[in-house]
Amino acid sequence: MRMTKADQDLIAAAVARAETTTAGEIYCVLAPRASDYREVPLAWAAGLSLGLPILALLGGFRPEALVGLFGGWSIGHAAAQGQTIFNALAVYIALQAGIFLATVLLVSIPPVRHWMTPSGLKAARVRQAALDQFLSHGLQLTRERTGVLIFASLAERRAEVIADEGVYAAAPKAVWAEVVALLTAGLRRGDVAGGYVAAIERSRQILAEHVPPRADNPNELSDRIVLLGGED
Question: Which domains, ranges and CATH numbers included, belong to the chain?
Fold first, then answer.
């Protein structure tokens, strides 16, 4: 999903219109992804390499049976039995290492890694990315603390709205879930610009009701959407 210059202009115009009816400052950011989730392949590899052998043991499998797969050794006396156990453990460890490596390689494939990343982790990373953008762009520095960030991440198809304390003090937090739902719906149907425009319009309605414009109503933040990661 690419965002054209026309899309960006459409969003900027929607922000400009919205801010004529409120003292709130709306700021939009679009990210290609919230995180690369580099720990996910390692987490799956560790879990499977440790968990699968345990499940096999609980299912009745015995490590010494592995020795037979590689030619087998006879158990004629204590020394031979000890060697057999050692060989079984060595094969067992080698299989664990193989499972670990194969899982890392498989889950490192971007589509597989995305699919195998827990939903809760995605939500947490999108939330953290939105908080980082809120602070890095100075939304907490508006005159009456009325900045509102509308953030979306394409890879996760998730959105976040973060409002400053001046807005939260006036408007109930629950209403912002409606803004998130509108933007998320746009992401899922492939209409990013349309999702932003709908989210901005709903934000305008909320802000106009709870944070009306002042006699002097300067534009403290840019109306143009910020595209992270080289989006066009």
Answer: 5-36+118-227 (3.10.310.50), 39-116 (no CATH)
pTM for this one? 0.81
Q: For residue 194, what are the contacts with CB-CB under 8 A and spacing of at least 6?
A: 186
Q: Tell me the per-residue pLDDT of 157-169, one tens digit each, with 9 for 90 and over.
A: 999 999 999 998 8
pLDDT of residue 14: 98
Strand partners, 29: 151, 226
Contact 129, 35 (CB under 8 A): yes
CA-CA distance, 38 to 219, in Å (whole number)?
Answer: 39
Which residue would you say has higher pLDDT here, 144 or 71? 144
Q: Give the percent of the chain with pLDDT over 90.
A: 65
pLDDT over threshold 50, residue 232: no
- Strands of the sheet with 25-31, listed across from one edge: 158-163, 147-153, 25-31, 226-227
